[in-house]
Amino acid sequence: MADYPCVELGPIAHGGHCVARLDGRVVFVRYGIPGERVRVRITDDSKPRMWWGEVAEVIEASPDRVIPPCPVAGRCGGCDFQHVAVPRQRELKAQVLAEQLRRLAGLDIDVTVEPVPGDADGLGWRTRMRYLVRDHRVGLRAWRSDELVELPVGGCRIAHPGGPADLGRFAGHDGELQVVISDDGCTVLGPGGELLTGSQIVTQHVGGRAYRVRADGFWQVHPGAAETLTAAVLDGLNPKAGEQVADLYCGCGLFAGALVDAGCRVTGIEASRSAIELAKLNVPQARFHAMRVDKAGSRLAKKTDLIVLDPPRTGAGAGVVRQLAGLEPTGIAYVACDPAALARDLATFATCGYRLESLRAFDLFPMTHHMECVAVLRPH
């Protein structure tokens, strides 16, 4: 260990790394906590001005450092924060979100990352898992690698306990296993999406509605996420009966269902044809179109009162933001899983006459650096 350089860890950065400095160079360090003194193992020195590394030895530990609940934490790439007490994890995420908003959107606001009710220890929540199979061994990928890290006894600690007790019986062929826990049971998909057990179409219940979802399609992975996000969107927008709403990147119709039940007239746009077919079944009271959001102008009502925007991790982008601002809605609810993309789009909305009215962030991915946000915008 003496060969590894000693550094003091600075603030947390987007992606779950702590920022440190070594010989005038920035080093992004995994598995640390701000304020700690550690020895760091350099894992990537390919760029002259910034390196990446991971904690090799803790010299002065933070009081928030804990023993990771998983014995392969630090080897598996799925979790960033198992060494951090759960309340401090949320503080670190809040700091990242605040810093991205300040740097990219010029917004200086206090941020709190809210826990999901009933999620005390941050374990056993992930209802959609991807496992790697090699030579009849089942595991998870190492960080940014295809290296297999075999599952420990007891399995992945953040995986929902409703999955198969013995994944080995599905390890007949190399490739990827997908395990999906839904309200109607467990589905396992093998390499190439082959159905091994369960159903290709699963059911999720939210707000009194049953949503049919492809097992290999998109659905929030935390069991409390859909209810939490739906409530936050409705609370933020306060939709009125008869209002015209555009639900963009609508998936299989989660927000559309809640908005229809609030009495709104809803048009949903989503590029995935299979998701749209399910959305039509899930929410027959709404209109849906399978197309890209940036090409959807003619499908949206000229008088659009409200917009729900739930883009992929890369964000909506400046072109879509300007197009939506041109509809002059009275409220926009932006659901975001990446704080940097959110901040960039908020900055563009500001140039189009929309201000941030409220922002809520939720810890829907405990033990990782990820979070989900709901931002509500109103015209100046």
UniProtKB/TrEMBL annotation:
Cross-referenced InterPro entries: MeTrfase_TrmA_CS (IPR030391), NA-bd_OB-fold (IPR012340), SAM-dependent_MTases_sf (IPR029063), TRAM_dom (IPR002792), U5_MeTrfase_fam (IPR010280)
Keywords annotated in UniProt: Methyltransferase, S-adenosyl-L-methionine, Transferase
Domain spans labelled TRAM: 1-57
Pfam families for the chain: TRAM, tRNA_U5-meth_tr
Membrane spanning stretches: none
Annotated active site: 337
SUPFAM superfamilies documented for this protein: Nucleic acid-binding proteins (SSF50249), S-adenosyl-L-methionine-dependent methyltransferases (SSF53335)
UniProt-recorded Gene Ontology molecular function terms: rRNA (uridine-C5-)-methyltransferase activity
Residue positions binding S-adenosyl-L-methionine: 220, 249, 270, 310
Family (UniProt): Belongs to the class I-like SAM-binding methyltransferase superfamily. RNA M5U methyltransferase family.
Protein's UniProt name: TRAM domain-containing protein
Lineage: Bacteria, Bacillati, Actinomycetota, Actinomycetes, Propionibacteriales
